[in-house]
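W.,

You were right to be curious about this one. When I first looked at the sequence I had no strong expectations either way, so I just let the prediction run and decided to look at it fresh. Below is the sequence, 104 residues in total, followed by the output.
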Amino acid sequence: MFGLMVRFTCKDESAAAGFDALAARTGEQIRAHEPGTLVYAMHRVDGRPLERIFYELYRDEEAFGTHESQPHIRTFLAERERYLSTAEVDRLRFLSGKGVNGEH
């Protein structure tokens, strides 16, 4: 498995609302068209109203490549910049745990 954790900081409350709407539309397309994307979850951060954390888990790096090439992802990547002041991306290598596809 392959994953990402991304911390986004929005410019202001109005930008956060726009970003949340963009992320929701993108999530609908991911659920409908990306079987190799196992988890794509967006979280608000308690006490930090402008921050969002995405946790993404893919079957493998090929599934991540497929995800990145989708039209809805290209749209998300192009449009998100107008809402954000920062984006921090961590690439994750799975070691162990419990969750998607049972225990590992």
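Here's what jumped out at me. Residues 2-91 form a domain with the Alpha-Beta Plaits fold (CATH 3.30.70.100). And, maybe more interesting for your project: Residues 26 and 37 are 13 Å apart (CA to CA).

Coffee later to discuss?

I.
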